[in-house]
Amino acid sequence: xxxxxxxxxxxxxxxxxxxxxxxxxxxxxxxxxxxxxxxxxxxxxxxxxxxxxxxxxxxxxxxxxxxxxxxxxxxxxxxxxxxxxxxxxxxxxxxxxxxxxxxxxxxxxxxxxxxxxxxxxxxxxxxxxxxxxxxxxxxxxxxxxxx
Amino acid sequence: xxxxxxxxxxxxxxxxxxxxxxxxxxxxxxxxxxxxxxxxxxxxxxxxxxxxxxxxxxxxxxxxxxxxxxxxxxxxxxxxxxxxxxxxxxxxxxxxxxxxxxxxxxxxxxxxxxxxxxxxxxxxxxxxxxxxxxxxxxxxxxxxxxxxxxxxxxxxxxxxxxxxxxxxxxxxxxxxxxxxxxxxxxxxxxxxxxxxxxxxxxxxxxxxxxxxxxxxxxxxxxxxxxxxxxxxxxxxxxxxxxxxxxxxxxxxxxxxxxxxxxxxxxxxxxxxxxxxxxxxxxxxxxxxxxxxxxxxxxxxxxxxxxxxxxxxxxxxxxxxxxxxxxxxxxxxxxxxxxxxxxxxxxxxxxxxxxxxxxxxxxxxxxxxxxxxxxxxxxxxxxxxxxxxxxxxxxxxxxxxxxxxxxxxxxxx
Lengths: 147, 412
Ligand SMILES: Cc1cc2nc3c(=O)[nH]c(=O)nc-3n(C[C@H](O)[C@H](O)[C@H](O)COP(=O)(O)OP(=O)(O)OC[C@H]3O[C@@H](n4cnc5c(N)ncnc54)[C@H](O)[C@@H]3O)c2cc1C
Ligand code: SF4
Ligand code: SF4
Prior knowledge:
The complex is a heterodimer. Chain A is an alpha+beta fold. Chain A folds into two domains: 1-58 and 116-147, 2-Layer Sandwich (Alpha-Beta Plaits), CATH 3.30.70.20; 63-114, Alpha-Beta Plaits, CATH 3.30.70. Chain A is 20% helix and 20% strand. Chain A has helices spanning 16-24, 31-35, 66-70, 95-99, 128-132; strands at 2-6, 45-48, 54-57, 76-79, 82-85, 106-107, 113-114, 138-142. In chain A, a hairpin with a 5-residue loop joins β6 and β7 (113-114). The relative contact order of chain A is 0.26. By secondary structure, chain B is of the alpha/beta class. Chain B folds into three domains: 3-42 and 57-108 and 236-303, 3-Layer(bba) Sandwich (FAD/NAD(P)-binding domain); 118-233, FAD/NAD(P)-binding domain, CATH 3.50.50.60; 323-409, 2-Layer Sandwich (Enolase-like, domain 1), CATH 3.30.390. Helix content of chain B is 24%, strand content 29%. In chain B, the strands form seven sheets. Chain B has a five-stranded parallel sheet with strand order 3-2-1-7-19. A five-stranded parallel sheet of chain B has the order 9-16-10-11-12. In chain B, strands 22-23-26-25-24 form a five-stranded antiparallel sheet. In chain B, α1 runs parallel beside α8. Chain B is globular and about 60 Å long. Chains A and B meet through β1, β2, α3, α4 and β6 of A and α8, β22, β23, α9 and α11 of B. The site of one iron/sulfur cluster has 14 residues of chain A, from α4. Residues 7-13, 32-35, 42-43, 45-46, 78-79, 105-108, 127-128, 153-154, 157, 238, 241, 270-271, 287-290, 292, 319 of chain B line the site of flavin-adenine dinucleotide.
């Protein structure tokens, strides 16, 4: 399946992906209105290592997802390889935050958990972080691994 | 065609069903379910009382789960006996059921210590099942004074659930602090303060000695009057079926990393078992939903002839009350070093021994804590990562470029 991969040698560390993520999932059409003056809760996090190398981390859509196995509400599931979260079922217990080895589940600012769903459920239809990255440092592609 | 039988219908059983079907699409699966409900999310019963969920959303799986997986569920029936030699079980109805592979997913039962006069209390409840919860909901009114015996996870979750629906809530416990099985004094004090700020009262370091109708006499002489009593002292693993059949059991049914019991073709999973905690290198009952699922799944795959192990089990808890969250994982072995960072709003305690993170206790800041949990689970040598960075906060940056290449440039 297609997943998000990073090319850290191209990452500028500009954090634009975090804003594009928050906007894509805001359900609004005006980016300024959606984000201005607000704390954003992006599902992608830009990190920097000790050598100044930056890269964006988002859900790996694990083949054997420990978050799905751990959710106390049955709110996480795997559909055609995509790890989805059912906002209606989530009670915000944060067990998924405690178990995701990559720190890819975060709180959504309203007491529930959220994670990258590849923009398949919002109006973008394909990852907004990838589309908006000015330097092509995040890609969405098939890398041929057996599932 | 193989015949699979599962005793119990909780999350361990659901994991077992999904594990079996990942390896065998053909065999028959029969589930014996004492509770008259399809598998539901037990931890959500307090969220139900809080009205943050409802009975429909509490279902663990979709309505068609059993049909989709070709499972027959015998509701309202219990297994009474396992005959490991004849490979069959007997039900309370007298029926017997043959099996080729059996999984015992019987969970645990509330433990009520003998207390004088308990029979004089009219409205008393456990807080484990949906039926307990619906009965408790029926019994409380906005004027009720509720006394909860037990300041552990279940008692406090019950307190949070009832908050706002009753006049007052008092929680007592023999232990001197709340959540005594997962938190140390300092962390427990922070949680307790927050609970008190939300109107929950505590009587700690003493427990009820005697009940006289609607009042409890504490061991320290104090009297607490109440209208509704909740007994949340603790739970005991349901081991009897396997034990009586000659299987090994301690405080839980003994299982290995493949979730096999000592009986041939009998597996066990979930709260009814005891198993190896890699963080403390000891055998424990770790009654936790994630572990129950993972054990169930592991058992299911092995029952169907596949090969699976659950070999990195640790205790871990994510628990929150009135908006303050707490994450704990692993253990604090003798002689471990504690690395602490704390202020008024949060505490972070990391426990380190022999170049490994063995456990942590975090209150307040929960961002990306799974990165810490993975260090415990993978028993990562801390000398191989940038621990100074991890002390600032969980981040993949501390794990080195090779690890990053693996997880961010390939499928995991
Ligand atoms: C209020 C509360 C809050 C919790 N919160 C959390 C939390 O936040 N995080 C977490 O990780 N865990 C939590 N837990 C624990 C979690 O619910 C359990 O770890 C999990 O449900 C265990 O699943 P299980 O399938 O092993 O057992 P159970 O869910 O107990 O299921 C066992 C089932 O087997 C049935 N049964 C027993 N004997 C027989 C028999 N002989 N024949 C037929 N059926 C039988 C029982 O009736 C029961 O329905 C909580 C528990 C409670 C009560
Ligand atoms: S949230 Fe974490 S554990 Fe779950 S699929 Fe994504 S990366 Fe894997
Ligand atoms: S926070 Fe939501 S999605 Fe995460 S484990 Fe809890 S209920 Fe499941």
